[in-house]
From TrEMBL:
Residues 69-454 form the Amidohydrolase-related domain. Its EC number is 3.5.2.5. It comes from the Eukaryota. It comes from Chilo suppressalis. Homotetramer. Pathway: Nitrogen metabolism; (S)-allantoin degradation; allantoate from (S)-allantoin: step 1/1. Transmembrane segments: none annotated. Keywords: Hydrolase, Metal-binding, Signal, Zinc. Its cofactor is Zn(2+). The lineage of its organism: Eukaryota, Metazoa, Ecdysozoa, Arthropoda, Hexapoda. InterPro entries: Allantoinase (IPR017593), Amidohydro-rel (IPR006680), DHOase/Allantoinase_Hydrolase (IPR050138), Dihydroorotase_CS (IPR002195), Metal-dep_hydrolase_composite (IPR011059), Metal_Hydrolase (IPR032466). It holds the Pfam family Amidohydro_1. Belongs to the metallo-dependent hydrolases superfamily. Allantoinase family. This is allantoinase.
């Protein structure tokens, strides 16, 4: 156990661990944090020992022993749904769940809240409801929908991390999908701005989800019926469609929640062509994320009627899952996020075709990834790379968040990589206690979470009130 005194004004703090984890290595040492909650120095054990012999009065030492000391997780894909659908989720519950899971930054998706984040005014409405309710730092995605091209520049000025759009029905009437013409206009506005355009990459022309209803149709209680309605081609064609815009734009494109493994080689080809044409930005301006559900679940294991497993694109077969792990191993994916997209239980039900698509897991980002990664012999640095550094880079937060490096916010966690716990309704802190992982044993437990040097979660308890900040521009 870690011994220290919790309620003290913030002075200088020295966090110690036998396993300090960065996104590329692990070492025995410490992290010195200043009174502004920023990392001042990252130290090897011999330097730590010489500091400790100096008996500095106002230095608080927090020794985690063998617990891993890691950067807080940055989850770049969370649907908070407030205001408007706050019975599904809200800022308090989503960020409390995040804090309990060692997630120190979330980036809120532009849809499912009413209003959606598609104008500056709507962003103000969202920020007003987030204010004073957030337990971790919160950034915002804007949305691109038909007709809001003129709102995009204002949203960039306000500090959104980028924009998401849909190439198929989003399931939310306030957030319509875009057509080729809408996209061409959006790319024209965004060109040269340095922002990110993220795609829900399923192309509607391949959508078979409404093709059949009534007698004679495949059984909607079976998962395979749903899976067959959203084939790999929906993703593959969407990504090829996105790639067709790249020669005319310098906008960074990001594919969210990749499920079908076949999209990765297509993206790589698009990236290589961009790089050959002289594109200089991060990863050739083409990146992809996958989600813990695609890395943890497979279609064969989904029981009839259990729509807590439903999301889109769908969880595919075990061969697909193994291929995604191969891509993780080879660093051919860029980050892992939750796509935490909750709803109330009434919208789930046992019919896979009509149930709400969305899986809640913001609280379990790290243990979910680690359970699978550890079993495959991967390191904690690998987890930090995909769950912290990668998403921070996507959100443009690489100089603030996502790593253990001098100058960054001291968003830190103590993580026990060998502990295990059971996902139960009592453990879950997000609003609707629905999960495809219910009663599963997960490996790895977040013991403590620090946000900008302040303790916000310890030993299964949240500490004090909300200390999160909104990651929007000064003067917004
Ligand atoms: N609207 C919404 O949150 N949709 C999300 N749910 C899901 O499973 N995939 C999504 O994009
Ligand atoms: Zn999506
Ligand atoms: Zn989503």
């Amino acid at each position: 156990r870690i011994i220290d005194h919790i309620h003290q004004p913030l002075g200088k703090q020295l966090f110690l661990s036998r396993r300090v984890v960065t996104d590329s290595s692990e070492f025995d040492g410490g992290v010195l944090v200043n009174d502004k909650g920023k990392i001042e120095a990252v130290l090897k054990r011999d330097v730590v020992n010489s500091i400790l012999t100096q008996q500095l009065d106002n230095l608080k030492v927090i020794d985690g022993g063998n617990l891993a000391l890691m950067a807080g997780v940055v989850d770049s894909h969370v649907h908070v749904n407030e205001p408007g659908r706050s019975s599904w989720e809200g800022y308090v519950t989503a960020t409390q769940a995040a804090a309990a899971g060692g997630v120190t930054t979330i980036i809120d998706m532009p849809l499912n809240s009413i209003p959606p984040t598609i104008t500056l005014q709507n962003l103000k409405t969202k920020a007003a409801s987030a204010k004073e309710e957030i337990f971790v730092d919160v950034g915002f995605w804007g949305g691109v929908v038909p007709g809001n091209q003129r709102d995009l520049t204002d949203l960039i000025k306000a500090g959104v991390v980028g924009f998401k759009c849909f190439l198929t029905d989003s399931g939310i009437s306030e957030f319509p999908m875009v057509t080729r013409n809408d996209l061409a206009e959006a790319f024209a506005v965004l060109n040269g701005s340095g922002t990110v355009l993220a795609f829900h990459a399923e192309l509607s022309q391949n959508d078979k989800s409404t093709a059949c209803s009534g007698p004679g149709c495949p059984d909607p209680i079976l998962y395979d019926t749903y899976l067959a309605s959203r084939p790999d081609e929906m993703e593959i064609n969407a990504v090829s469609f996105v790639a067709s815009f790249l020669p005319q734009t310098d906008v960074h494109v990001h594919i969210v929640h990749v499920s079908a493994e076949g999209v990765i080689p297509i993206l790589e080809q698009a990236r290589n062509e961009r790089i050959k044409a002289g594109y200089k930005g991060w990863r050739g301006g083409v990146t992809a994320e996958t989600c813990n559900h695609y890395l943890s679940l497979s279609s064969e294991m989904i029981p009839p009627g259990h729509s807590e497993y439903k999301c889109s694109p769908p969880v595919r077969n075990i061969t697909n899952k193994m291929k995604l792990w191969e891509y993780i191993n080879d660093k051919r994916l860029d980050l892992v996020a939750s796509d935490h997209s909750p709803s109330v239980a009434e919208l789930k039900g046992s019919n896979f075709m009509t149930a709400w698509g969305g899986i809640s897991s913001v609280q379990f980002d790290l243990p979910l990834f680690w359970t699978e990664a550890k079993a495959r012999g991967h390191s904690l640095s690998m987890a930090s790379h995909y769950l912290s550094a990668g998403p921070a880079r996507l959100a443009g937060l690489q100089d603030k968040k996502g790593s253990i490096r001098p100058g960054l916010d001291a968003d830190l966690i103590f993580f026990d990589p060998d502990a295990s716990f059971i996902v139960t309704p009592q453990v879950i802190r997000y609003k609707n206690k629905i999960s495809p992982y219910m009663y599963r044993v997960l490996t790895g437990k977040v013991m403590r979470t620090y946000l900008r040097g302040q303790l916000i979660y310890a030993d299964d308890e949240l500490i004090d009130g909300p200390k999160g900040k909104m990651l929007l521009n000064e003067g917004f």
